[in-house]
Design brief:
single chain, alpha+beta, transmembrane helix, transmembrane, membrane
């Protein structure tokens, strides 16, 4: 469940881009923003509910299950650019979504599911653009452990508290 929430949170910026793209299309057709919302209200309600629930579950589980850890990060490499490359790969196909076409919605939903299965089964949960947009840096070490922090851990990771989150591979550093 947590892995699915992390995956969905990754796409919240994309959901916003889809909404803005629909507003642009509406303006080109002399429609109002309200008409975009009302015309596809079920779609927007589902996206909003799924996004909010995912964020709430993620925050609750991370805050509740975070355990202090003795894990020493060691030498770290920042992987934020890898995250952007991963996200952009799926950005263009999903932005081609046509909300007025059921086939377009179906195809994009299937793509979203396939990517989600791959994303969660491959334990690629750290490829999360939302974390980067929120000011977090994502690092990996030589043991393939992932460290998430707002601090610059490449420069200084001494005197920082490390918390294990999600699995034995993911750590939050404060």
């Amino acid at each position: 469940m947590l892995n699915i929430c992390i995956y969905i949170c990754n796409y919240i910026p994309l959901f916003l881009l889809i909404f803005l793209n629909e507003i642009r299309k509406a303006e080109d057709n002399q429609k109002s923003v309200c008409s975009v919302i009302l015309e596809f209200k079920l779609y927007w309600i589902i996206l909003l509910l799924v996004s909010v629930l995912s964020i709430l579950v993620l925050l609750y589980r991370w805050l509740k299950n975070a355990q202090s850890s003795d894990e020493i990060p060691g030498e770290l490499k920042i992987i934020n650019t890898d995250i952007l490359n991963y996200f952009v790969t799926y950005l263009i196909p999903l932005l081609s979504l046509d909300l007025a076409n059921i086939y377009s919605i179906s195809i994009n939903f299937i793509i979203f599911i396939i990517i989600g299965v791959f994303h969660t089964k491959s334990d690629m949960l750290h490829y999360n653009l939302l974390l980067v947009l929120m000011g977090y840096n994502i690092y990996s070490n030589d043991k393939n452990k992932i460290f998430i922090s707002k601090c610059d851990l490449v420069e200084d990771c001494n005197d920082k508290q490390v918390y294990q989150i999600a699995s034995s591979r993911y750590f939050l550093v404060k």
